[in-house]
């Protein structure tokens, strides 16, 4: 199913002044800091991973000051993001204000997880999300878990939801600006008009990977420093480090569009046609997908993880996800009675 701008909010989207167009919608999260206070109590949680790396993810569990209701909301950041990214903190505050407990997850090597991990996340690291949910089992309410993945985190979510995961209590999920065809996204970033975007991302990727806790040899570090594109970085680092046969094998096997037909829970996929980083065509291709669990919303504007709308200071994608989540909560409560 695919829908576009319609007559009623929160389906329609209009840019908020002065964030007009895809680039300004995208850059707003860099210009404007996230909320200082989320409105709840925050606890740090260390989650061991099940492989032999001894890595542990660091997550922040935010609890509303009032009684908790509804599913646990798990937020997965995008490439070079973390639990403190502006869009993550704004979404956390949105759900906390509605009485939901929120888990802001730091993937391997991201944010404070840089000090507890020697490995680095990638577009298909679904096992890590599964381990994280298992580690959070004690705080998952009867209403289950709802997961939101932003940018690369959305592609990771598709890799997870295409697997049998009934034991994890997931009632549904949403992706925002996910690069569901990673090769196309890498090629888009190499366009001349995206030179500054790519340089920004690459600098932050190198910062994460070259962190002292990563334990790289001098030769490895020198190779990574010479990378001049996200594609090249994935070729010399991400693919070989994670058992893929080259960068294009990595992109092909982890591509969310490949996994979408097998998603087994309700999933909302939000994307903007003017996203400067991620092509919209893969989302149009999903319009003919017979999987009834998928709802794909492709809107005219919004940029990359922007969606700063004219009618509210709360991000439009959060309000759109709220509308999608409401009937899922009702169904879950009915089943539990």
Task: Characterise the protein shown here.
With 337 residues, the chain is α/β, with parallel strands linked by helices. The protein has one domain: Alpha/Beta hydrolase fold, catalytic domain (Rossmann fold, 3-Layer(aba) Sandwich), CATH 3.40.50. Helices cover 36% and strands 16% of the residues. It contains twelve helices and nine strands. It has helices at 21-31, 86-96, 126-135, 152-161, 182-189, 195-209, 218-225, 230-241, 247-254, 256-259, 281-285, 316-336; strands at residues 2-3, 41-48, 56-63, 72-76, 102-106, 145-150, 170-176, 267-272, 294-299. The protein has a nine-stranded mixed beta sheet with strand order 1-9-8-7-6-4-5-3-2. A hairpin with a 7-residue loop joins β2 and β3 (56-63). α3 packs across α4 and α8 crosses α9 (247-254). Mean pLDDT is 91; it is low at 1-10 and 333-337.
């Amino acid at each position: 199913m695919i829908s576009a701008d319609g007559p009623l909010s929160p389906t329609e989207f209009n840019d908020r002044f002065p964030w007009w167009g895809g680039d300004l919608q995208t850059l707003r999260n860099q210009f404007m800091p996230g909320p200082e206070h989320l409105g709840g109590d925050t606890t740090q949680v260390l989650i061991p991973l099940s492989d032999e790396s001894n890595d542990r993810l660091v997550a922040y569990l935010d609890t509303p000051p009032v009684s908790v209701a509804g599913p646990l909301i798990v937020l997965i950041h995008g490439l070079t993001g973390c639990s403190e990214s502006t869009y993550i903190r704004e979404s956390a505050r949105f759900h906390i204000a509605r009485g939901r407990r929120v888990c802001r997850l730091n993937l391997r090597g991201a944010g404070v997880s840089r000090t507890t991990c020697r490995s680095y996340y990638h577009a298909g690291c679904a096992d890590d999300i599964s381990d994280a949910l298992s580690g959070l089992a004690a705080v998952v309410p009867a209403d289950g878990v709802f997961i939101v993945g932003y940018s690369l985190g959305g592609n990771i979510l598709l890799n997870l939801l295409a697997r049998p995961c009934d034991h994890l209590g997931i009632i549904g999920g949403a992706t925002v600006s996910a690069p569901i065809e990673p090769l196309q996204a890498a090629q888009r970033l190499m366009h001349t008009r995206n030179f500054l975007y790519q340089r920004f991302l690459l600098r932050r990727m190198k910062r994460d990977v070259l962190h002292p806790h990563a334990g790289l040899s001098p030769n490895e570090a020198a190779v990574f420093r010479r990378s001049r594109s996200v594609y090249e970085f994935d070729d010399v680092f991400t693919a070989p480090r994670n058992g893929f046969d080259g960068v294009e094998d990595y992109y092909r096997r982890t591509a969310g569009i490949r996994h979408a037909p097998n998603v087994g829970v309700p999933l909302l996929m939000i994307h903007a046609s003017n996203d400067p980083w991620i092509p919209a065509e893969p989302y149009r291709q999903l319009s003919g997908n017979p999987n009834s669990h998928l709802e794909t919303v492709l809107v005219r504007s919004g940029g990359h993880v922007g969606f700063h709308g004219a009618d509210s200071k709360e991000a439009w994608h959060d309000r759109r996800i709220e509308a999608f989540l409401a009937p899922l909560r009702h169904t879950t409560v009915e089943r539990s009675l």
